[in-house]
Amino acid sequence: MAAQSVIGAPAEEVESFRLRARAWLAEHMPRLPEGVDNYHLMRDDEFGVRARELQRTLYDAGFAGICFPREYGGLGLSREHQQAFSRESAAYEMPVLFNVPTLSILAPTILDFGTEEQKRRHIPAILRGEEMWVQFLSEPSGGSDLAGLVTRATRDGDVFVLNGSKIWSSGAFRSDYALCLARTDWHAPKHRGLTMFIVKIHQPGIEVQQIRMVNGWNEFCQEFFDDVAIPAEDVLGQVNDGWTVASRLLIHERDAVGGASRYTSGLGAAGERSGSATGLDHLARATGRTSDPTVRQLVAEDRVHERVAQQLVRRVTTGIASGYFPPPAGAIPRLFAATANERHRDMALEIVGRGAAAWTEGDPVGEVSVEYLFRQGGSLGGGSNEMQRNIISERVLGMPREYAADKDKPFDEVRHNAAPSRVR
Ligand SMILES: Cc1cc2nc3c(=O)[nH]c(=O)nc-3n(C[C@H](O)[C@H](O)[C@H](O)COP(=O)(O)OP(=O)(O)OC[C@H]3O[C@@H](n4cnc5c(N)ncnc54)[C@H](O)[C@@H]3O)c2cc1C
Fold first, then answer.
1. Residue 277: pLDDT band by 50, 70, 90 thresholds?
2. Contact residues of ligand 1, CB 6 A cut-off
3. Does the domain spanning 135-241 belong to CATH 2.40.110.10?
4. Which of 49, 285, 323, 344 has the smallest set of CB atoms within 10 Å of its CB?
5. Domain range 270-383, its CATH number among 3.30.450, 1.10.1660, 2.40.160, 1.20.140
């Protein structure tokens, strides 16, 4: 039986959609060079110019926003359609810069909480590749205790006036809009005095500084807000109920970084890595070690992790959809993806051996040690592994919640860090 699209008309069968996508991709999208994946190309596209063009190409051809509702420019199709397209498109250049956080985290949060006007303003523009988004959540005083943030937004007539600072915002310099969580009531307990705002990034009062990372990237940013006027109609959800919005955003984020999001495209199936420059089979060939039993064991272990990741995503997403698991169960594939990624980087280094210590320009194995420097990234972005373990124990397994002395106290009576001053 054909699936139903959101407006009730019978949707195209998955197999027919797959074949149509296959033919269109072969004719219109550039094939990835051997051993290169989209994440490698992404680094050459620092300002996202190519990603915007490719996203527009997908949109014009009717392949953007596969699981987004049709009334906001999407196709209104199922997760199976999205997975079919992701598999077919894995060998092509794709606008993966849009995947996280724009398509998989922030657009779904706008769909969940946005007014009709907000959804019509932003979702089609995102799918056309005109708006890239970023999340302004973490602050210099700490990211795990998100509800303890100190950036403030003070109501002044029709606007809120934003002051403070956010940090570790991935790709803010190239983005157009942010979802920004700020404190709007200092007398309420910490979770109840927050509001989520839609913020235009490039405007007076906002300064974005890129942060030079140890692996040479400039992806992270810190932002400083000096009396930024945000129109009251740009509140997402309700004033002082930003924690509800943030909690849902974090569920979308765990799905996104764990490989379980239905809103991405062009990644291959969840957890797939083989064939890319850092796929272990590729490294075994590049180092001439395909017959080495230890290396073969490592390649096999990596493959097993890929398979487990795919099955875990399937199991957990099906379980959440059927109500068997609560939505925070997305922390399970997220935790697995992060720990498997750490192991993958360790194994890559082991295969390359001395080649990772010194290499010549263009040597494919040299990449491994640069990537190793980012080994912990996946275990922090989207909430640290320890926080995922807390979520699994408290909200999936129902174990007692961690004690928090400040939970019900008015925030202005809680000892906390001051808003940071600017570093120049
Ligand atoms: C690749 C990457 C991308 C990111 N992108 C963004 C972004 O776009 N926007 C954004 O706002 N932020 C982003 N972040 C920031 C990220 O959300 C934070 O790094 C993360 O939430 C942890 O916060 P922190 O770094 O301040 O560490 P802290 O909160 O200071 O934590 C330090 C250590 O203490 C542990 N810890 C803290 N509290 C507990 C607890 N209750 N129980 C057990 N252990 C605990 C943590 O696990 C961690 O190991 C990104 C980070 C990375 C690495």
1. low
2. 134-138, 142-144, 168-170, 377, 380-381, 383-384, 386-387, 390, 402
3. yes
4. 323
5. 1.20.140
